[in-house]
Amino acid sequence: MVMYGCQDRAATLAAGDIQEHRRAVQRNMRMKAWLVALAIACIGGVTETGVHVVRTNAQSVALAPEKINPNIAEAESLMRLDGIGPSRASAIVAYRSSRPAGQPAFATPEDLEKIKGIGPVTVNKIRHQLCFN
Question: Is the pTM of this model over 0.70?
């Protein structure tokens, strides 16, 4: 009996060859997704969670989320940060509002430790999500 197509190819390959073929296909798929994201990174949009999404004909590629400035962000945006819920987000906004105008409340990630409930562990988790410009 003669088999055609992928099944015939798989039947003729040794077990080691099949594994190598699978690894090569996976590498190719990862590289293709990366190249698509790189080539059309300016096209797409931002989801409500702040993740940039690039759409192609057959797939969507998620890129890195945009950074949040705690000196100007609303509570809803602050809640996108890891470990920051509604009460901590409200506390950040309240602290920021109590500061004199024209003076940023937060210059470094460590300044967020002034907020009750935000410690060094939380600051380290969200450090990469923050900007202060």
Answer: no
- Going by the DSSP 8-state scheme, the letter that residue 104 receives in this structure is -
Gap between the Cα atoms of 119 and 104, Å rounded: 20
Tokens 């003669």 belong to residue: 2
- Percent of the chain past pLDDT 70, that is, above it, reads 58
1 domain residue, yes or no: no
Regarding whether 59 and 11 lie in a shared domain, the answer is yes
Residue 63: the pLDDT is 55
Residue 18 covered by a domain: yes
- DSSP calls for 44-94: SEE-TTSEEEEE-SS-EEEEEEPPB-TTT--HHHHTTSTT--HHHHHHHHH
Q: Report how far residue 89's alpha carbon sits from residue 70's, in angstroms, rounded to the nearest whole number.
A: 9
Same domain? 123 vs 87: yes
